[in-house]
Automatic annotation (TrEMBL):
It comes from Yoonia litorea. One of its GO terms (biological process) is CDP-diacylglycerol biosynthetic process. The keyword Lipid biosynthesis applies. The keyword Nuclease does not apply. Its EC number is 2.7.7.41. The chain crosses the membrane at residues 20-52, 64-81, 110-127, 133-153, 174-192. Keywords: Cell membrane, Lipid biosynthesis, Lipid metabolism, Membrane, Nucleotidyltransferase, Phospholipid biosynthesis, Phospholipid metabolism, Transferase, Transmembrane, Transmembrane helix. This is Phosphatidate cytidylyltransferase. It is a multi-pass membrane protein.
């Protein structure tokens, strides 16, 4: 009986990544499908944890403050999602401001990322409520397929780095493959919806926005000298590592929805 050949080193994390991804897909899909309070609770939890991870990257020796800020994020987001007041959006400034007062360094970094995380989380919930399950599925599919195509193409083909100073592992082959994957998702949605072919272009731009979210978090980790935002998810690091692209995509869609204003024009 022959022994199967060992898995090449560049693929040695694949099993763990796939297992963790499957678990996240199941939980995420359940929340997205059910919508309402269930999806809100999922987004509030993920958002609060990401703010905690952000704090821990900057100030790892004071975890209690990070947990208190995360609890405050959960409270503010829960209240804002229920009331949905335009003025209530100003409450998203509370945690960034408090964090800044407690930090000696990286004040701007914490402020920008903490605010962006909360706004992106709020945007995801309202995207689900305003446009429905199908288009949230499109958003998530673009981000997930971009990541999958990028991962396998980068591992298989390698080549020139996309932005080596910030993200040494990302290659042009993986980046472009992500755009191709997003375009395929967009094309499939033109088949099953009444959206025009322009959704293919929007999907590619959305893919790029997600990649920029990934790049932004990679830049933060590089500056903080950490490999992952945390160790919560085997093979993926933390929730911030896993959802950074979704944050970038969500912020992009908030801008698009605001510019076009009318849901029917955009989707």
């Amino acid at each position: 009986m022959t022994t199967p050949p060992p898995i090449p080193a560049k693929w040695d994390d694949l099993t763990v990544r796939l297992t963790s991804s499957a678990a996240m897909v199941v939980v995420g899909a359940a929340g997205v499908i059910m919508g309402g309070i269930w999806f809100q609770m999922l987004v509030v939890f993920v958002t609060a944890v990401m703010v905690w991870e952000l704090w821990m990257m900057i100030r790892p020796k004071e975890p209690t403050k990070g947990m208190l800020l995360a609890a405050l994020v959960a409270s503010i987001m829960s209240g804002q999602l229920v009331e949905n007041s335009p003025w209530g959006m100003l409450l998203f400034l509370i945690v960034p401001v408090i964090g800044v007062t407690q930090l000696n360094t990286e004040k701007k970094t914490f402020f920008i990322f903490a605010l962006g995380i909360q706004v992106a989380g709020w945007g995801l919930v309202h995207f689900r409520e305003d446009f429905g399950f199908f288009w949230l599925l499109w958003l998530m599919s673009v981000v997930i397929v971009t990541d999958i195509f990028g991962y396998f193409a980068g591992k298989a083909f390698g080549g020139p780095k996309f932005w080596p100073a910030i993200s040494p592992k990302k290659t042009w082959s993986g980046t472009v493959a992500g755009w191709i994957g997003a375009a395929i998702v967009g094309f499939l949605f033109t088949i099953f919806t009444n959206a025009g072919l322009w959704v293919i272009l929007i999907s590619v731009i959305l893919s790029f926005a997600g990649q920029m979210g990934d790049i932004a978090e990679s830049s933060l980790k590089r500056r903080m000298g950490v490999k992952d935002s945390s160790t919560l998810i085997p093979g993926h690091g933390g929730l911030f590592d896993r959802f950074d692209a979704l944050l970038g995509a969500s912020l992009f869609l908030i801008v698009v929805a605001d510019v076009f204003d009318v849901p029917g024009v955009v989707f």
